[in-house]
Structure formats: C-alpha cells, structure tokens
Write a structure and sequence with these properties.
The protein is an alpha+beta fold. Helix content is 20%, strand content 30%. It is built from six helices and 18 strands.
Amino acid sequence: MKLVSFSQNGVLKIGGLFQENKIIDLVSACNLYKSEEKDLAFEMPGDMIELLNTGEVGIEATRKIFEFIKRQYKSEPEKLDDTVYDIERVKIKSPILNPRKIICLGLNYSDHAEEGGLKPPDRPILFSKPPTAIIGHEEPVIYPKISDKIDYEVELAVIIGKKGREIPEKKAYDYVAGYAVFNDVSARDIQFGDGQWFRGKSFDTFAPLGPCLTLKEQIPAPQNLKMQMKVNGEIRQDSSTKNMFFKIPYLISFISDVMTLEPGDIIATGTPSGVGIYAKPEPRLLKVGDVMEASIEKIGVLRNPVV
C-alpha cells in the first residue's frame, strides 16, 4: 500500500493511493467497511503518525479496508463518491506532517563525497532538520533572501513505524514502516560559511517529502532502488540506493544507540553524486522558476517548484 496525507476543502485527512490517480479517504472507507462487514472494531485515526502509533493492528486493518474498497469500486463505484476521489480534487501533502525528528545523513554515498574532494567518513555524519522545513508534493520551495546558492539532493527516506532504542541491526527492519522520497534542499553558502550544516539545511520548505509513504512490504529490497533528480526535465542525479555507504540496518542501530526512535521519525539516508554545487565546469545551482523532480523506484516522483 501507498499511504498519503491530503487536504480536501481545507480539511487534512489520510488516504491510500489507488490506481495511481485516485485517493481513498481512509476514515470514510473505515466507516463504510464497518457498516457492511461488521468484523472490525478499529477506529481509523485522521493523522499518519497516529495510524503508525497503532502498530501492526492499524496497518492490518488498513489493508482490509483497502482491499474492501477495491472490490467495491469494481462492482459499485457510484457508492464511493464520498470515499474515493480523483487525485485532481485533493491537495497531496507530506505523508508525515509533523515528525518529531528528521535525521539526515551526510556523505553517505562515496561518489558524492569524492565529487566534493572528501573521503567517505569512518562513521555516519548526522545532522537534523526542523519539522518546519517539511513540505509535500507540488508544494513550493521558497528561495531565501539571505542565500544565492540553493541546491538539491535526492534521498531515500526511511519512516520509522515502531518505538525503539538500542535496536540491533538484525532487527532494524522490524522498526521500519516504509519509505518516501526526500529532497535535502541546501543553502550551500550558509552551510559552508557556518562551518556546520544545520542552519543551511533548515530553512522553511527545505525538506520536501513524499509523494507517499510506501509500506515496507512493497519494497523488500530497499538497498536496490533506482533514484534520480531532474531539474527542469534534465537528469542531474542518477544512481541507486545500493551505492549507500552505510546501509539502513546499520544506520537505525547507530542512531538508536543514543536516542529513542518513534513512529513517524524520518531518516534521510544521504544523496549520490550530481549535486549542483560540484557540477563541472561550474556550479549549476537552483534559481527561481526551476522545477525539481526527485524520484525513487517503487515510491514515485516528488515534484517541487522553486519560488
């Protein structure tokens, strides 16, 4: 399943992506399921983190509801006008709207480290972004007044689904809910000028996430996914998650050694080569009017204009 957060007439809801161009309102779908099937006591929450907090009980209930709606749509689609919407009728938001943590990796692809004249680190380099940086699919990245070197970075985001601390590598995937596309937008002049990365990567709108949360059951091999970044239709980054230096289980274990991971936490796992700042013969940084399209196999395309 692919889960989304969306807005309809100004009301925030959670849903499921259906047939690539339709959205199931999961609260409405849950109520409809219970009125006809009578075998479900689950109350569907209206927020993605709340759904993840229900654990496997909630995910299994969502699977049942999803399959029920697919059957209903095939036989009686007219009954679902208030439950299944054309995607054009809603506004897709970030699947996680208010994460407690956004934990990011620096230099986690050796080719990206090398294009910057650096060696891959001996230990993961961690930094964070604030929740105020989060935006969703098609929402604009705002070019800040105090920078003129804005850059893109396509990344695989791991979304935590279960609370845990000191998680061993062999059990790491038990704590994963699923995956999304992440764009680590960066103000390079602020990042390099400060001598540390937090401020240059933390502007409002500098953490596009989406377009959906693809549950881990649909991605059994997250370390072998094609990934790309296009700017105005031109491919700038073209790689695979197999080139990650520190792999997902190690990262989850390494991070959870010092902090409790919670449902809805985001781990952005780093970017491959091809970022604008290191382009040859001269940097190719973002400008107002550009459109970024970050894509990862089995998840989708995260599109954001620069305004």
